[in-house]
Design a protein that fits this description.
Blueprint (H helix, E strand, L loop, with lengths): L24 H7 L14 E3 L2 E5 L8 H16 L4 E5 L5 H21 L15 E4 L2 H8 L1 H8 L2 H11 L4 E9 L19 H5 L3 H6 L4 E7 L11 E2 L9 H4 L3 H10 L10 E4 L5 E2 L9 E9 L11 H19 L3 H10 L24 H10 L4 H15 L2
Parallel strand pairs: 2-3
Antiparallel strand pairs: 1-2, 3-8, 4-5, 5-10, 6-8, 6-10, 7-9
Helix pairs in contact: 2-6, 3-4, 3-5, 4-5, 4-11, 5-11, 6-12, 11-12, 11-14, 13-14
């Protein structure tokens, strides 16, 4: 296989991904031997260890043409380029990060105290070696709506997410705090097929092995400085473009290749890391004396199922007043667009087309985001918003 062959062109005519012979390690090695250059990614600040690194200017200073050019380049990076990029100072407001981190650590402590059976581990690390907050997205909103709204009103999140997923994406998040001594993961690919057994994965038609990677985008925001000794994510650039990778990463010889060839980049507080979910990757060992704290983002296409369920209504109960304040203070610009995209569903299906019919101007029914945008523009109070939201959902039910 030529190392430049598109992942789509690697698919044969068979329904299932062939398992005999085993995926070709030599073809995989050739694919991963590619080198990214500044000529290929001219908008990057630099190329570090085969990973394009971007310095983000204030969003307001970017013209529509500049934004589109960045999205075009990010799409190429994620599709058949290195598969991973770094956004320097995605969150330049470190006061916000500190407040968010404090809220999330409070949640960790309260969850630990509430469950004496909880050992503090999960499938990412052994018991006692890390703290995880599942659905930190919703929990932060309920615990501290002001920091939540400011955090997810970051317009760069939306621009990066939509470069890969288009509009209507859904954000979920999980906080991971890896303690000193926390061990490295085994290399893997992520959700969807990465969360299946080998046997089940082998029964998935091979076209879906490729299609799956277009339904999610993985991200991580460093809430603390993350030097190499703290174990930042190990990455294997270009590995996302290997079609049989969801079967291959489970094989010992591919894991050995990963261990011999991965790269890792130190991250500064506020940096963002984004990668194709099919990229071979693994968290590293924390050999530092400090915790490694990151907010892990899994952003889903409206055409797929997110890994976690998000209930919009309690988010509105908690943060509508903050959203209204944001709109009044800063206008209906990029930040309002970003928080609406984070809080509400942007895809209107499934619905009841008798009671929520297509709108002539859009050829689609009303969505949560569309409704919330209208209510925000009208300056509705929380009580009115919840009444309208409940009526909307009654109309979408079968």
């Amino acid at each position: 296989m030529s190392k430049s062959v598109s992942v789509l062109k690697q698919l044969g005519s068979a329904r299932l991904m062939p398992t005999t012979p085993a995926p070709s390690l030599s073809a995989f090695a050739a694919l991963c031997s590619q080198k990214a250059t500044r000529e290929q990614y001219p908008l990057a600040l630099s190329i570090e260890k085969n990973v394009p690194v971007y310095k983000l200017p204030p969003m307001a200073s970017c013209s529509p043409e500049q934004r589109a050019a960045l999205q075009d380049e990010w799409y190429r990076v994620l599709l058949d380029g290195p598969g991973v990029l770094v956004a320097k100072q995605l969150f330049p407001n470190h006061r916000l990060l500190d407040r968010s981190s404090s809220t999330l650590m409070d949640i960790i402590r309260s969850e630990r105290e509430a469950s004496t059976s909880r050992q503090g581990g999960d499938h990412f690390a052994g018991a006692g070696k890390n703290d995880r907050v599942w659905n930190s997205f919703s929990k932060q909103c309920l615990a501290d709506p002001a920091s939540f709204v400011e955090y997810y009103a970051n317009p760069w999140l939306g621009l990066i997410a939509s470069s890969w997923l288009g509009s209507g994406y859904r954000i979920t998040a999980q906080v991971n705090n890896v303690k000193p001594g926390g061990e490295a993961q085994v290399c893997h690919r992520d959700y969807h097929l990465g969360f299946m057994s080998e046997e089940r994965c082998a029964r998935i038609p091979q076209a879906m092995h490729v299609a799956s990677q277009f339904l999610t985008l993985q991200g991580a925001v460093a809430h603390l400085d993350t030097p190499l000794e703290s174990g930042p994510t190990r990455l294997l650039p270009y590995s996302q473009a290997f079609a049989p990778g969801y079967l291959a990463y489970r094989l010992p010889e591919f894991n050995d290749f990963f261990l011999d060839n991965y790269v890792a980049l130190p991250l500064e507080k506020g940096d963002g890391l984004f990668f194709n979910p099919a990229l071979f990757h693994a968290a590293g060992t924390n050999q530092s004396p400090k915790d490694r704290l990151a907010n892990l983002l899994q952003i889903s296409s409206p055409f797929g199922k997110p890994m976690e369920s998000i209930d919009t209504r309690p988010l509105l109960v908690s943060c509508w007043d903050e959203m209204l304040h944001l709109a009044r203070e800063r206008g209906f610009g990029d930040e309002v667009d970003a928080i609406l995209a984070a809080v509400g569903q942007g895809y209107p299906f499934p619905t009841n087309l008798d009671r929520n019919p297509p709108r002539n101007e859009e050829m689609a029914p009303q969505s949560e985001q569309g409704l919330l945008r209208e209510l925000l523009r009208e300056g509705k109070d929380k009580k009115s918003v919840l009444e309208a939201f409940d009526e909307f959902h009654r109309n979408t039910q079968a």
